[in-house]
Structures are given as structure tokens and as C-alpha cells.
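Components:
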Amino acid sequence: MIKLAIMGAMEEEIEPLLAHFENVKVTEFANNKYYELTYNGLEIVVAYSKIGKVFASLTAATMIEKFGCDTLLFSGVAGGINPTLKIGDLIIADKLCQHDLDITAFGHPNGFVPGGSVFVETSKHLRQVAFEVANENKISVIEGTIATGDQFVHSEERKNFIEQTFKADALEMEGASVAVVCDALNVPFFILRAISDTADMDAGFDFDEFLKSSAKTSADYLIKIVDKLNN
Ligand code: 4EZ
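Structure:
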């Protein structure tokens, strides 16, 4: 039987997930709350990590190593880079990179450190399940590269750098760190995001305006994927 980790970064990102489940047991660990439940015969642990790569790594590793999760799904919001992505649109990561990881001073490419790789790929199987769900429910979603860094991007300059350097379609602050942890621990994972802003001058304003609705768009689709995982 699968033991599923479902994570977000912010409380707003997991709220619509928790609202869907019942009989939740709360465990506190390392300054975070972990919500354990069973759903359709699946064991699930839900948590939000707090924002950024460090907190997201800690939470992903905890869900895997302490709670024994063997599959991880992430739901949340992101800034859009690909101009076809409008606020509220969904993106599934096929691969992720760290746009702020930089030892280029030593001739290495952006996003690379020795022993690692610029991109980490997500589970093909989980993406396939997600696309079946999208087709069945007429949900429109694209697959693409997500770039992660410890910055809320709100300028054309930084956005263009990330687009040109990594050919990224969307950006956020946790996905690639979760990817590195899951890849190292051999846990299949899936990263889903709905666009809350387009990482430009208006990003701060748009984010505040659309965080809740986009987080719900992502969470609603994720629940349908969870339903499918068990069938
Ligand atoms: C980070 N998340 C934003 C957290 C912002 C404010 C209190 C997603 C995200 C994002 N990250 C949405 N839009 C973004 C952007 N333009 N840059 C970085 O994962 C917390």
C-alpha cells in the first residue's frame, strides 16, 4: 500500500486539501505540524513546510524518513514565465532546477554543483496519471520546467535570466529542493503548481490577489489525482 506525502509551502496551499479530508491526527515535529489521515484506504501525511528551499527540504525529508512516505505530491502556486501561462493556469513539472545555485566563478553552469545535476526529473508514472485525470475531467494543464530559488521574483530582469538560462516555464521557491531530496531518497514525486502571478513588477500585488484561488485550483486537481492513484 502507498503511503503518500502531500505537501505545500504555505498554509493557504494545503488548506483546501485539509478541508477535503477528515479524522486528521496532528503531530508536531521540528517546528512543523504533520497531518496524518487515511483516505480511500490510502495512508496520507499532509504538511506545509514554510517558504523556501531549506524548509521544503526539511519537510520532504521528514515525511519520507520519519513518517515513512514512499510517494510525494506537491501542490501550490507559482510565478508564470511561459507567456501561454495565465493566472490560474496549471503546470506540472517534468523537471526542476535551482536558479539561484551559482558557482559559475569556477566555470560550472548555473544551477550545478559537483555531485548534482542542473535538472532533476519528476516521476513519469505520476505525470501520466495526472494527464489521464486532466483528460477525463477536461482540465487544461501544461508540462514544463520549473525553476526554484530563495527569492520572490518580481522583475523582468530576473525573470528573463531564469527563462534564458534554464528555458523555465514557471518559477517558485521550493520545488527543486523537494526534487533533490526525493531523487536522493528514491521516492517518486510530482510537482503541481497553479499560476498566481507572472513574476513581473505586479507580482506582489497579483500574488496577494490570487494566492487563495490558484492554491485551490491546484489542490482540487491534486485531490482528483489522489483519487486516481488508488484505482
Ligand atoms: C513560493 N511561492 C511564493 C511565496 C511568496 C509571500 C509571503 C510561489 C510563488 C513564487 N515564488 C508564486 N509566485 C512567485 C514568484 N513570483 N516568485 C517566487 O514557492 C510568499
